[in-house]
Every structure is written in structure tokens, then in C-alpha cells.
Amino acid sequence: MSEVDPLPGRILxxxxxxxxxxxxxxxxxxxxxxxxxxxxxxxxxxxxxxxxIGFDVVITDLTMPGVPGMEVLRHARALPHPPPExxxxxxxxxxxxxxxxxxxxxxxxxxxxxxxxxxxxxxxxALERRCLSTENRRxxxxxxxxxxxxxxxxRSESMQKVFDLVRRMAxxxxxxxxxxxxxxxxxxxxxxxxxxxxRADGPFVPVNCGAIPEQLMESELFGHVKGSFxxxxxxxxGMFEVAGGGTLxxxxxxxxDPATQVxxxxxxxxxxxxxxxxxxxxxxxxxxxxxxxxxxxxxxESGEFRQxxxxxxxxxxxxxxxxxxxxxxxxxxxERFFDRFNREMKRELIGVSxxxxxxxxxxxxxxxxxxxxxxxxxxxxxxxxxxxxADHFPSRRASAxxxxxxxxxxxxxxxxxxxxxxxxxxxxxxxxxxxxGGVRKRAAKLLRISFRSLRYRLxxxxxxVGRSAEG
Length: 471
Description:
By secondary structure, the protein is an alpha/beta fold. The chain has 4 domains: 10-138, Rossmann fold (3-Layer(aba) Sandwich); 151-321, 3-Layer(aba) Sandwich (Rossmann fold), CATH 3.40.50.300; 324-394, Helicase, Ruva Protein, domain 3; 417-470, Orthogonal Bundle (Arc Repressor Mutant, subunit A). Helices cover 45% and strands 13% of the residues. It has 18 helices and 16 strands. The strands form 5 sheets. Strands 2-1-3-4-5 form a 5-stranded parallel β-sheet, with helices on both faces. A 5-stranded parallel β-sheet has the order 7-10-13-6-14. Strands 8-9 form a two-stranded antiparallel ribbon. Helix 13 (330-344) crosses helix 15 (368-382). It holds the Pfam family Response_reg. This is Transcriptional regulatory protein ZraR. Keywords: ATP-binding, Nucleotide-binding, Phosphoprotein, Transcription, Transcription regulation. GO terms for molecular function: ATP binding; sequence-specific DNA binding.
């Protein structure tokens, strides 16, 4: 018998002949393998379907009463990756059956009777192949993890903690609530949680709850059946069903109305939905990741947000720090955005000037990373010299932008803070409306706030926008 350095594995032997099962059990058991036997194809399917047992190699007879070996092969190769290697064994081999087995995914084909060293060597090679498949999968998972976090840039301690929490939570199904100011990258975190999970092959479905009208929210999330309301010309899947097998990202979760909050809580508890106008419960299988820039605790206190829903969503919390609290990350982000836009716009700028970097380091970024990205994109597009300068960054007016930055900028007689902030808010909203041609939804998008929030601010400030401006 040839010398084989044994690589131990979990082996399933499927054969309706007791003598063959005992022969292979002794032969492979002595080689250090853990052997399980099944006396029929039906028994083999039951054993293979047990999630607690993972086999490395299956040796199955081809011709058996009831469930044949080909069905065992199909079932084994359909198991989650990496599936076990399957060796077919038969005393009645034909070219057609051998070709069919190899097409389905059999590792090899043995003709009975076979020698002990022959089967031991074949099992060893099958184990080596499976080991290689497992290692390749592990390396792909590592590379996927690098790619998933690649767009999230930060060397600061606070961001390193975020990265660590994302990696640890990605492998669970636990509900995650992402907190952070507008522009801090909450959707990037949600995508990283999805891409690092075992649901990465499924869909990632983002839903901006602040952009959906209240009367359409239930239909958008849970779907509807034909004729359930005016305009429902046919059945339509909701986002919970669309995200089946993947991740549903509910952005601006604090904007959903109380009635939808009740229904959302039930879905999270029961894992079923009822489409608008429907009578049957539909099971759903998706992970829910939510995000908000609102103070949900205050919303719960005021009765705007259900406490039970808040606790259901806030199982694990990931808090994204604003950019002004992690200045050590600004240079890294500037480099990343500069390289990206320089390449995308086919510019040939050679770098960022000292004055531009100083300006960027001194700014406090109320719009966070998204604002920094927009600043760099605009500057790269407009720059006419060899290096990126500060010439195309916004001018900094002491009266509005720099009040409180330095003692000299603060008026000696003081100021009315609420009035000053209201004036600044009014100026920015009017500027956004002008830029959007008076279309309020576009203006809200420019201001990085929900349409509902803009509508409230317009009423508060007494700004009227004509019906025609809605487009």
C-alpha cells in the first residue's frame, strides 16, 4: 500500500450493502478519518440536511433502491459553499453515467471492486481539493472585507472603533442602528455591514424614509395588491420582499409616521408582512439596518417615536463621529478625494497646495465628509494651475461663518444668536431654492435634509413657495 500523509476529514459513506459500508468504515477510520454511514440515499439526504454536521467527502453508491446516488450527488453539491467533494462508486459503470456525474460536480468515479490504497489516495486528494477551496474562500472573504471598508477612510481612534464594530457585527443578524450627523457616511457603514455578511450575495436595498410621502410609506415598505387603492394597477412587492436574502437599509428612520411605526415593529417581531389590501401574511427574510441623524431619545420622550420600536432597532448602535471631531482624518480624506476626482475628470494636477490644505484643515465641516468631498470635486473641476489651490473654496465671511471661531470675530456688544441663526438658515434655504429653480424636493436634497424638514422650516421662517415651483 502506498504511503499517504493523512489529512483527516469527515466522511459520509452511502451504500445499501452492509459489507461495503463496513469495509470503507474500517479502511478510512484507520487512516484517521471520522466516518458516518448511511444505508440508503434517503438516509443520506437526511444526514446531509443536518446543519450541525458538515462533511468534507461523500462516497456514494450509484445504484440504490429509492433515492439513487445521482440524487445524493445533486443534494450534496447544492449545500452551502464549500460543499463536500463527492466520489461515486459502482460496479456497473457506463460512459454516460460517468459523464453525467462529472457534469453535476462529482470529484471522481470509482469502479467496484477497488483497492484500499486506491480509495485512501482518492479520499486524500479530495480532501486536499476541498481544503484549497476553503482557503480560497477565506482569502476572498478577507479581500471582500478590505473592499467593503475601502470607502470608509480614517486613521483616528474613533473611526478604528467603528471599523472594528462593523467587522464584528457584520457576521450576525442583529439589528443595527447607525447614528451620526448628515454626511458622516451612514450608508457606507450599512453597505459594509452587508458586504461583510453571509448575505453579501443578496440585494442591498436602501430606503430613504424621509423622502417618501406619508401616504405611500406603507405600500413602499410592505407592497400592495392590485386594486388596494387608486392607481394600484397590479400587485407590487414592498422593499422588505425586494431585500429578501439581503439587507434592507432604512435611512432617516426617525421620519416615519406613527402608523407605519406600529406596522414596522410588528414586522421586526414576526418576520412577516401584510401587503396593503392583502389578507395573507408573507414571510420575509432580510436583515434590517437603520440610520438617523435625529435625537431619537428626545423623539421617544416627546411621543414622536415609539419606545418599543426604538429598542427593537437599537440593539447594537454604531455612532459615526462628525469630521470636526477627527481632524487627523482630514488629510487622508483630502488625498483620497483628490486622487479620485483627478482621475475621474482626467485632470493632471500634481497635488494639493499648502494653502489649500491649511484651508481644509481649518474648516469645521458642518456637512461632514460629504461636504469635504463636494469641496474637492468642485476645486478639481475648476482648478487652472498645476496644483489644487484654495482659490475655488468658498469665501469665509466673519459675519456668518466665523462668529465664535476667534474672540476678535465676536461683536463687542454681543449678538442675538437665535436671530443670527435664523437669518443664516433663511439665506441658505433661499439659496437652495434659487439653485433648484424653486423645486422644494430638490432644495431639500441640496440642503441634505428631508422634504418634511424643509417644509417645517419654510413654515417657521414664513417663506412662501408658489404651487408652480413644485414642478
